[in-house]
Fold this protein.
Amino acid sequence: MQVFIVGGAVRDELLGRACADRDYVVVGATPESMLAAGFRPVGKDFPVFLHPETQAEYALARTERKTGRGYHGFAFHAAPDVTLAEDLGRRDLTINAMARDEAGELVDPFHGQRDLQDKILRHVGPAFAEDPVRILRLARFAARFTDFSIAPETLALMRRMVADGEVDHLVAERIWQELAKGLMEEKPSRMFEVLRDCGALARLLPEVDALFGIPQRADYHPEIDTGIHTLMVIDQAAGRQFPLTVRYAALCHDLGKAQTPADILPRHIGHEMRSVALCETLSERLRVPNDCRDLALLMARHHGTIHRAGEMRASTLVELLEKCDALRRPARFNELLDSCLCDYTG
């Protein structure tokens, strides 16, 4: 039985980044031998065990075979004869397909260290195309490693996957999981740029994709394009290290501008209520947590009014505070103001 540290822990060590979680792959073991060594089974879809002392995850080396569309369409094979190279070969990106053995030696069959040095996000092999979640994961890594580029052949493969309809079979919970992680990265705008570049944004988040190309008044928004403005607002929230609730509100606050009648552009009269309706639709479809949804709805409905708060009479300002439930929910109201700050500075 051989144990290897794999994936993100190896990648982050080579980058000089801190890594809280360490994942291990065990080669040459069986579930019975793991149980005999005191490990506790936790995997539902494939054999994963918790170390009896550290509680770290140890997975048996495995291969996988595509059996259907979407994230769940896989059959897994874990056996003592599965090699480390076979296990690493099923992973998404070369920078995530490295391992270290118990002596500290690097195992790098797909040249992930070279791609780290060259700052390239590259898929390991054809198996990338079998799991549409990997498009979201790559986009999320682009938001984390902000100076990395995507290998041309990887981007071309992602575009083919979208054209083949693979992303249409992703379940809402998985989309939200990756979206939430991406929003919490260093530069979340890159995630949306990558998804848009490969065509996945229009399939997964059509409400957001529709914002690109919609003009705004240049005196308020020098960037003009509503989609670009939205990405700038999200990055403002990330730069200020605001929580997920604020970042999701930043994403949704101007959705209604995509439905502004063409004859009144670049003005967007009444876009707030259109944004509320689209935010409700998006949040319901992705099963967004209540705290994120509720703040996003408040932001969509009231951000225009809050930007004009300095011009209000005292009675009107009190009415706004009541509509926002500011006195009963002061913490949430502070997050609403943070969201509006990002909109103003973005």
Summary: Residues 298 and 324 are 7 Å apart (CA to CA). The domain at 2-111 is CATH 3.30.460.10 (Beta Polymerase; domain 2). The two ends are 54 Å apart (CA to CA).
